[in-house]
């Protein structure tokens, strides 16, 4: 991203040029020199900007779903939102999280590999305290989880995968399954240390406790669905696959829909006094000539021309021509 100068920096630069502290010719010379950008092959950026934006959009929805879920489960104030989305080597991510934390490892079937949801201990123990009837106060506890704590947290975070599945449903039909809960990141090796991962950091507030929930998505796991994260995929229309017999069933339903069809014999204008004086046997002259075709409308739309007649001793019309749309517009 290009550096953008603030107004104060611009003023200071102009002042330095005017006082002679900086030489404009030297600045021009620096611009003409070939600039070399250092590239770190250990921090390969394997996700495009479009894909990062799509991942951000997906996990913003996930954050909203998590807020609703945890609010119902914990019965307290919960606020979760996306704080940042970064791509970095897996080894760097592991080093950045606490030495003792809550690591939920799950398999995103049918995708191959494992994903990770790291929950800061402050947030995790506040949830646990709330579930056990407390006020949701975090406990600075740096040790292994007991069997009861592991069981409760497993059930709590297992249900968050339903929200994860729903958030990703627009991209891939996923059936995530919780595999294990770890507390020491040093014992967790999901991918190679240099593998690029995307880390979505969710800022989380539970009652008066705040912390982070990090979602770690390795590139090797998402590689199969990466094309679906591009803008072109989101914009294109996906053709729906119809079930066998679905088209015929729809046609049968449409054919049974009732329509109002009217044939207009002609029009005439008379006064109210003439209308009040009408009686049996009176004749009203219409503006329609006898040799001109009648207009037939379907639900008020002009559709056909017809000629009047009789069929089985009943008044009827016979369609003689179809009104084209262009003719109708005129």
UniProtKB/TrEMBL annotation:
Gene3D superfamilies: CheC-like (3.40.1550.10), SpoA-like (2.30.330.10). It is found in: Bacterial flagellum basal body; Cell membrane. Pfam families: FliM, FliMN_C. GO terms for molecular function: cytoskeletal motor activity. Residues 253-323 form the Flagellar motor switch protein FliN-like C-terminal domain. Keywords: Bacterial flagellum, Cell membrane, Cell projection, Chemotaxis, Cilium, Flagellar rotation, Flagellum, Membrane. GO terms for biological process: bacterial-type flagellum-dependent swarming motility; positive chemotaxis. One of its GO terms (cellular component) is plasma membrane. It is a peripheral membrane protein. Belongs to the FliM family. PANTHER family: FLAGELLAR MOTOR SWITCH PROTEIN FLIM, YOP PROTEINS TRANSLOCATION PROTEIN Q. This is Flagellar motor switch protein FliM. The gene is fliM.
């Amino acid at each position: 991203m290009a550096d953008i100068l603030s107004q104060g920096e611009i003023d200071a630069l102009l002042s330095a040029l005017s006082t002679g502290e900086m030489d404009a010719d030297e600045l021009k010379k620096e611009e003409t020199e070939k600039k070399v950008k250092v590239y770190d092959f250990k921090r390969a950026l394997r996700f495009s900007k479009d894909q990062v934006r799509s991942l951000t959009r997906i996990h913003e929805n996930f954050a909203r779903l998590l807020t609703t879920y945890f609010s119902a489960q914990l019965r307290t104030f919960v606020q979760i939102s996306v704080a940042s989305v970064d791509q970095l080597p897996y080894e760097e991510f592991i080093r950045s999280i606490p030495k003792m934390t809550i690591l939920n490892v799950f398999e995103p079937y049918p995708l191959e590999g494992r994903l990770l949801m790291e929950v800061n201990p402050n947030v995790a123990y506040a949830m646990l305290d709330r579930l056990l009837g407390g006020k949701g106060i975090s406990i600075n506890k740096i040790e292994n989880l007991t069997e009861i704590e592991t069981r409760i947290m497993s059930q709590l975070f297992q249900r968050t995968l339903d929200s994860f599945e729903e958030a990703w449903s627009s991209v891939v039909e996923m059936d995530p399954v919780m595999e294990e809960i770890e507390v020491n990141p040093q014992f967790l090796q999901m991918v190679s240390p240099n593998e690029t991962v995307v880390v979505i950091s969710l800022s989380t507030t539970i009652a008066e406790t705040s912390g982070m929930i990090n979602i770690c998505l390795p590139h090797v796991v998402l590689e199969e669905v990466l094309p679906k994260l591009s803008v072109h995929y989101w914009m294109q229309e996906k053709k729906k696959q119809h079930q066998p017999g679905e088209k015929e069933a729809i046609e049968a339903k449409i054919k049974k829909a009732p329509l109002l069809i009217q044939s207009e014999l002609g029009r005439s204008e008379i006064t109210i006094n003439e209308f009040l004086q009408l009686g049996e046997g009176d004749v009203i002259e219409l503006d329609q000539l006898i040799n001109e075709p009648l207009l037939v409308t379907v639900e008020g739309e002009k559709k056909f021309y017809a000629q009047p007649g009789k069929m089985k001793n009943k008044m009827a019309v016979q369609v003689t021509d179809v009104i084209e749309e262009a003719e109708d517009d005129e």
